[in-house]
Design goal:
By secondary structure, the chain is α/β, with parallel strands linked by helices. 28% of the residues lie in helices and 16% in strands. It contains 4 helices and 8 strands; from the N terminus they run αββββαβββαβα. The chain is rod-shaped, with a radius of gyration of 49 Å.
Length: 201
């Protein structure tokens, strides 16, 4: 019996290594490089439109906040706040009103004065106007008294057009300490007159 030793041709061939790569290492590296380049190209193609796209503006309903989206950057702009306040009407007790009768009807100025007293206005003694008017005119004695004149006109149911320019001289002998002068015309006479005789006040 002949023993088989190393190096003899009677030994069976070794089985192939299952982990041995099927391709040469150089070819495998080349394929991976091409794959990486392809991935880079795809990513670049996806990012390019967003970089060149026009900014997108988002307006939020009910607010004045504007959000601008450009590429990957987002900018939010908040508007400056401006507050406008309307001056409160002055208290009637702080308004001193002189009513002058500009009609030929008796008692108009006195009746209007009593009406304003009932509304808590400060009043002066009723007087006569130096002119006759159809439509009542309301004179603020200064620019500071324009709100007061507007309040008096509103209480008397007069239009804004009845309020005269601030500082304009009312047609009376003297306005005394009045802050507002009402020259009562025929429109107020129709509402406040008590008689139809010609008289002062």
């Amino acid at each position: 019996m002949t023993a088989s030793g190393p190096g003899t041709g009677s030994e069976p061939p070794e089985p192939p290594d299952p982990f041995e790569p099927f391709e040469a290492p150089e070819r495998s590296v080349a394929i991976r490089g091409v794959a990486i380049v392809g991935i880079v190209i795809v990513i670049g193609a996806l990012l390019l439109p967003s970089a060149t796209r026009a900014p997108l503006t988002v307006l939020t309903s009910g607010s004045a906040t504007t959000t601008t989206i450009s590429g990957s950057a987002t900018t939010t702009t908040s508007p400056s706040h401006s507050t406008s306040t309307t001056a409160a009407a002055p208290a009637p007790a702080t308004i001193h009103v002189l009513v002058a009768n500009a009609t030929s009807v008796n008692g108009v100025a006195g009746a209007v004065t009593s009406f304003l007293e009932g509304k808590d206005f400060g009043t002066l003694t009723a007087a006569n106007s130096l002119v006759k008017l159809t439509a009542t005119e309301v004179f603020p004695v200064s620019a500071a008294e324009v709100p007061a004149a507007a309040e008096v006109a509103s209480v008397l149911g007069l239009p804004q057009a009845s309020i005269q320019a601030a500082g304009a001289k009312p047609p009376v002998a003297s306005s005394g300490s009045a802050s507002v002068v009402v020259i009562a015309g025929a429109d107020l006479a129709a509402r406040f007159a008590t008689t139809t005789t010609t008289a002062r006040g």
